[in-house]
Amino acid sequence: MKAATKAGEVKGREIxxxxxxxxxxxxxxxxxxxxxxxxxxxxxxxxDLRVPQSTLQHHMVELLNSGSIDIVESRMVGNILVHSxxxxxxxxxxxxxxxxLSEEQQRTVLGLTLQNAFAEHxxxxxxxxxxxxxxxxxxxxxxxxxxEEGEAExxxxxxxxxxxxxxxxxxxxxxxxxxxxxSRSVIVSYIGHQRVRPAPGEPPFRSLVPAEE
Length: 213
Hints:
Elements: E1 9-10, E2 13-14, H1 15-22, H2 26-37, E3 40-41, H3 42-49, H4 53-66, E4 69-77, E5 80-87, H5 95-99, H6 103-126, H7 148-179
Antiparallel strand pairs: 1-2, 3-5, 4-5
Helix pairs in contact: 1-6, 2-6, 3-4
């Protein structure tokens, strides 16, 4: 397998291309969502996705060659070499953390974050988990026209909100000790960044908070 040769490139494929490829097929989306949970062998993935091994093999090889997944362990089972796979992912990085990374590391971390988040959202969408009658469903996107200070405020708000999510999870865990209620896996992803080009006008969805007069 080819190693990275330039900034933002993983095993010979540019990280942006690798991410787009990884989430462009339902089988690859399913593979990534499963490997986000933990290490799995190819036979375990085929079983959980209910996909024939012959179909899965191609997608596993492509994801591996793209640098989207990695082999954790290889062992002989009888006369067969069995690989165990994992998703490539990184933990939470604040703005300060990103500044400590090289350009290549930043692009790779961001690309893998997008890959794994989108895989989770798309897998849930395909499985019918996005239901209009769910009072807890939250699907939001918009662009905001702000100055430099406003952009910094948005970033600080997202980071503070993320920290509050951890507090919510901790309180929930404490309640479940008493109630014995099973936990629910809820995906939350925060993505805040500059748009690819300046927006031509007002955002598609107006803010619910009226501007100060």
